[in-house]
Write a structure and sequence with these properties.
By secondary structure, the protein is α/β, with parallel strands linked by helices. Helices cover 46% and strands 18% of the residues. It has ten helices and twelve strands. The strands form three sheets. Strands 4-3-5-6-7 form a five-stranded parallel sheet, with helices on both faces. Helix 1 crosses helix 5. The radius of gyration is 21 Å and the shape is globular. The chain starts with a strand and ends with a helix.
């Protein structure tokens, strides 16, 4: 079983069917990345040390690229052209960089990248390993967005699909309840507070009457500056609360933390059931 630094668990076996490109000119980092991903997930990476090699990997590769791990600057692309090239091809990107400041962050996030990892500690490779695992396995998580605003739903869906989640959406609390009955695999609901048919508190209460926190995590969201909303939401049975506008990194971390907790609860319950069955036998 793979256990990440933040508590993520994965025991699904090989992920070697995925084609991972590493655009990085440092022999030390490429060696460490290759070793980690091979040992943990049976992934053989393809290394591109220059911008030209990156272009050739795309043009002459025999399989689609699942994910690219890329430095901001490469020989032949010293001004970030590699990221623009990959983004233009709609290839998901995890940026692995040693140079980072606010302007760099804004430029990275503007390209709708999956994640970024900073080479500033001995844990950087472990963080990168976890980020790769999350992207490749997020499709196993089904997330439901509940919001009466088409724009808000579209923005949230775009964010979640960028991270490779399986996403459904509902424009009302009533529709959300219907979807939950049809799709028992939904593990996370992200619901707006202010909706016309029933507010987020009422939806949360109804969800909790049929699905406990060991089966379903609920995150409330709102644009209101009323700080009491978070307390009321948690009292109604919610697990977390976020205010709009979101900070991208915080949003992704909150989603991950709730899904990690759900996985850990399910794993613990399975262990207890297996022990009980073994004792009974």
């Amino acid at each position: 079983m793979f256990i990440g630094l933040s508590g993520m668990q994965y025991s699904g076996g090989s992920l070697g069917e995925h084609r991972i490109i590493v655009a990085e000119d440092s022999n030390v980092f490429t060696s460490m990345i290759g070793q980690k991903l091979k040992e943990s997930f049976d992934i053989d990476i393809e290394i591109c040390r220059t911008f030209e090699e990156l272009q050739l990997a795309f043009e002459y590769g025999d399989r689609p690229i699942t994910l690219a791990i890329s430095n901001i600057n490469l020989p032949g692309a010293e001004n970030g052209e590699a990221l623009g090239y990959l983004a233009g091809l709609s290839i998901p990107i995890i940026v692995f960089t040693g140079s980072f400041h606010e302007k760099t962050r804004e430029g990275i996030l503007a390209r709708d990248i999956v994640d970024y990892v900073i080479k500033d500690s001995v844990l950087a490779i472990d963080m990168l390993e976890e980020s790769v695992c999350r992207f490749l396995t997020n499709h196993r998580h089904h997330v439901l967005i509940v919001d009466d605003s088409p724009t808000a739903r579209a923005l949230l869906r775009s964010r979640l699909e960028r991270f490779n989640f399986n996403v459904s959406s509902a424009e009302s609390g009533a529709e959300a309840l219907t979807l939950l009955k049809k799709a028992p695999d939904i593990g996370l609901v992200i619901t707006d507070y202010n909706m016309p048919d029933m507010d987020g508190f009422e939806l949360t209460r109804r969800l909790r009457s049929v699905r406990g926190s060991h089966e379903l995590r609920i995150i409330g969201v709102s644009s209101s500056d009323n700080r009491l909303l978070s307390a009321r939401f948690l009292k109604a049975g919610g697990n977390d609360f976020m205010l709009r506008p979101y900070v991208d990194e915080e949003f992704y971390c909150r989603v991950n933390q709730n899904l990690d907790t759900l996985d850990q609860i399910k794993s613990a319950r399975r262990s207890i059931l297996n022990t009980a069955k073994a004792n009974a036998a």
